[in-house]
Design goal:
By secondary structure, this protein is α/β, with parallel strands linked by helices. Helix 7 (about 125-145) crosses helix 10, helix 12 crosses helix 13 (about 270-285) and helix 12 packs across helix 16 (about 315-340). It folds into two domains: about 5-130, Oxidized Rhodanese, domain 1 (3-Layer(aba) Sandwich), CATH 3.40.250.10; about 145-363, Rossmann fold. Helix content is about 55%, strand content about 10%. The strands form three sheets. The protein has a five-stranded parallel β-sheet. A five-stranded parallel β-sheet has the order 7-8-6-11-12, with helices on both faces. The protein is globular. It has helices at about 10, 30-35, 50-60, 65-75, 80-90, 105-115, 125-145, 155-165, 175-180, 200-210, 235-240, 250-270, 270-285, 285-290, 290-305, 315-340, 350-360, and strands at about 5, 20-25, 40, 95-100, 120, 145-150, 170-175, 215-220, 225, 230, 245, 345-350.
């Protein structure tokens, strides 16, 4: 292998907790948006329009003409782009490596332009990095024991996962799929920033697991899709066969948590009108499951809550949230648990689960 090139396994060492290199991704923004590599800095050598023009030239006139066009198009921006790479190298305590899609011309040209012998490029580029990470993900999931946190909607499964993640031993991974997917996994679960692409989600998931190399993985009970991104089949299947912790919480706790997450917190970032509109849209998505009468009741209760003096009151939103839980989410969960054959490892409130888990793992 060319000594100036770094293998994917050197960038992401198994069980290393963090990447061993600062990765500068010189692909165009549209490529990064489709499949970002975790932790990489996006500092492109070609913009989207420049890349498109070079690609067309390559197909019509060949490689040499395409390279010449690329040099011509980037000439006005070359110094600024090289300076951004130079600043990134200077700011990092880690060694730096470039990557483009296949580790060839763009990263090679970037390496040449920068002229720093301490900066390498990734063998095979981001394509090889993704292939390496996805292969490792399947292998690590197969080797790791899995424990699934289940429970009714609003009981605080994600909060519990985060609490356990702060105290678990180094060989246990609290894997937050909803965090990686930037979605709460329900009809009301979207965030303003939107979700990553499918490949970006998978890359982040794979890097998280690979760098942890866990003996045991804690995971929240999820559907096959978290919003619009799909959980890899082998993770979903393993979760359906693994022991579960049943997290319990009172109805009042669940309602208050749902209202905080779906009403109060979004209102802080947006406006009452915008959040009301989003909630209406989400409720209407459940029209067939709720039925016309119950949907109307929820919408009417939500409309009543939409008042300056009531909007930030749990009591004002409790009627429609209670209806949503009882007539949709709880029924869905009960049916799923009735069909489930997974062994129950423990059940109790969050405090009891934390105490049990500490005793089981000796910390």
């Amino acid at each position: 292998m060319d000594p100036a090139r770094i293998a994917p396994e050197d960038v992401f060492p198994l069980g290393g907790k963090t990447a061993a290199f600062q990765l500068i991704d010189v692909r165009a923004p549209v490529e990064v948006q489709n499949s970002a590599i975790p932790g990489a800095l996006s500092l492109p050598i070609l913009g989207d329009e420049e890349r498109a023009a070079v690609g067309t030239c390559y197909h019509e006139r060949g490689n040499a003409a395409a390279v010449a066009l690329g040099v011509e198009l980037t000439a006005p921006h070359r110094e600024a782009r090289v300076e951004s790479w130079r600043e990134a190298v200077a700011a990092s305590e880690l060694p730096t490596t470039f990557a483009c899609w296949r580790g060839g011309q763009r990263s090679g040209i970037a390496e040449q332009w920068l002229g720093d012998s301490n900066v390498s490029r990734v063998q095979g580029g981001t394509k090889a990095l993704r292939r390496f990470l996805m292969t490792s993900l399947e292998s690590q999931v197969a080797q790791s024991d899995m424990l699934v946190i289940s429970g009714l909607t609003g009981c605080g499964k994600t909060d519990l996962l985060h609490e356990l993640g702060k105290v678990v031993p180094p060989d246990v991974l609290a894997l937050d799929l909803e965090g990686l997917a930037n979605h709460r996994g329900s009809a009301f679960g979207g965030f303003p920033a939107g979700q990553p692409s499918q490949q970006t989600f998978e890359n982040e998931l794979a890097a998280t697991v690979h760098l942890a190399a866990p003996r045991k993985t804690l995971i929240e009970d999820e559907a096959r899709f978290v919003g619009r991104v799909e959980v890899p089949e082998y993770i979903y299947t393993k979760a359906q066969l693994s022991p579960v912790i049943i997290l319990q919480a009172s109805q009042a706790e669940r309602v208050a948590r749902i209202i905080r997450e779906y009403v109060f917190e979004p209102t802080e970032l947006s406006s009452r009108a915008a959040v009301h509109q989003d909630l209406e849209l989400s409720l209407n998505k459940l029209a067939k499951r709720l039925g016309g009468m119950r949907l109307a009741e929820c919408l009417e209760a939500l409309a009543f809550a939409d008042h300056e003096e009531r909007w930030l009151s749990v009591e004002a939103h409790a009627p429609w949230v209670n209806g949503l839980l009882l007539h949709y989410y709880d029924k869905f969960y009960d049916r799923a648990m009735t069909r489930s054959t997974r062994p129950i490892a423990f059940q109790g409130c969050a405090e009891e689960v934390c105490a049990w888990f500490a005793a089981e793992n000796g910390y």
